[in-house]
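tool_call predict_complex ligand=zinc ion
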Amino acid sequence: MTRSVLAIGAHIGDMDLTAGPTLAKLVLEGASATIVALTPGERGHPRLTPAEYKKQKIAEGTAFAEAIGADFLVLDHSDGFLPSTDDVALQLAQIIREKQPDTIITHWKHSIHRDHEHTAVLAERARFLAGLPMDATLPRHGVRSFLHAENWEDMEGFTPSLYVPISDEAFYRWVSAIRHQAFARGETYGFRYIDYYTALMTTRGCLAGYPRACAFHTNQSPEVTKLAGP
Ligand SMILES: [Zn+2]
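tool_result ok
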């Protein structure tokens, strides 16, 4: 049972798109969910300045999380320059100790974006550091499950090995929440994110034997799980 889930993305919107339907499902089942973005993703708009877009991204990420019933945190690293260092991993480890998730969802480790690759490494490192005895104010915390979300930008070597059915209620909650994000609507570089992830949920649902599903890479043999909340 998943009682608490932490989704760690490089940019605001990454986990909203890829893990969002699963987070919505788990929240509807009574779990708590937190989305953390390591950078605002402020350089993702071809016409707005980074300062303008940062403000917009934070407002969009906050509204999305609120709409699906998740908490939202954003760290202030620079979009495109996210360092893969122990300092950043320790920031994340602190969040893991505070939130005590039993499941972490993050990027797959190969991506066309270096920030995404660094986030996958940082999340894994943070999971390790959160479980180490250290001079920290919060007790250490072990995270049971570690899942990589399916993202069209992170597909090299991504092998789906866990399918999570997405109920109609969770799907519609996600789709009405994600519409608040300009990039997801295709207003930045024109990629039809919402169409892509909606179609992908149908495709993965066909393979899992449900109307809709999300797929994750887990380093384990393939399985279909309901990844149920408490
Ligand atoms: Zn991203």
